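re the bet — no i am not wrong, look at it urself. input seq straight from the record:
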Amino acid sequence: MSIIDSDITKAQTIPSRYYTDESTYKEVLSSFGEYWHFAAHRSQLESVLPIDNPLREPMLLTFSDDVQCISNVCTHRGMLVCSEQSQVKQLQCPYHGRTFGLDGKFRNMPEFTGVEDFPSNRDNLPTFPLNEWKGLLFNSVSASNFDTFISAVNEKVGWLPIEAYSHDPTRHRDYTIQANWALYVDNYLEGFHIPFVHGDLHEVLDYDAYKTELFDGGVLQIGTANEGETCFDLPSNHPDFGQKIAAYYFWLYPGLMLNFYPWGLSVNQVIPTTVDSTRIVYHGFVGDESKLGQGAGGDLDKVEAEDQDVVESCQRGVSSLAYDRGRYSPTRETGVHHFHRILTEQ
């Protein structure tokens, strides 16, 4: 049973231990392997790409005739097989030279003549679940029900040619912030703070028209453009047709943000490192260069810096003896409430 009341008008926020207690932190992270995580867009692929996401399991994307997700741990002595993106025809462990095909199958090992029952299936690199939606690749340790995971995203932005977007390395960012990962998610899931924290963003978004929609395993926030600002040209059969949508902000549990703008897609990965530090990794995929620098997605670096200052300050606050739990705004914090219910039910 969740410790967060389903009635937001009665509910208290999560206890501060979710942000500060080491054992609670580890318990929450232990379930991350049951969920889907962003791995890459097809435009990033070479033959081998190490995966960087919250799964604490070294994995590779390999691409030959098809894309696979395989272990990055050599079956000889546990060395990491690959440390960087490369274009190769096979994998070779840098420790003792064991080689594997791009499908993870064992190929060769020096100085192993006479070893009994070798090679066997145990010498192949294990594979992991991998799914693709419109050029975006998602991996897991044990997740299933991918169609359910991506359905809300597909309903709103499946009409976009996301598979044709191109990876823009200049938009890549990797920040480390001194705050618990869940505090960063809290901040992302409400537009309540926009007028107080993001002055420039507030000028291009219609705050009164800002909407939050909840779905199983995630939250969608919809930013509506102010008059004259850049917005999507929605198809006539779209559920939001006729509205000036500036951005679709999707959060998928536990820490994946897919931010769709008229120029393309910004992917935010929230990667916990310790109970009070977190990596925030940005990837940019461009669909319409003519719209870069415009509207709600015009200056993401400034918005990110403003968010980081707030979240790090909150970490210091929730670590104090004076704070344990707060309350929710029923009109502005339904997304945070939804997240907290999911989090405490794990």
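see?? Helices lie at 17-20, 22-29, 146-157, 181-188, 194-197, 199-204, 300-318, 334-344. told u. also DSSP finds eight helices and 17 strands in the chain. so pay up
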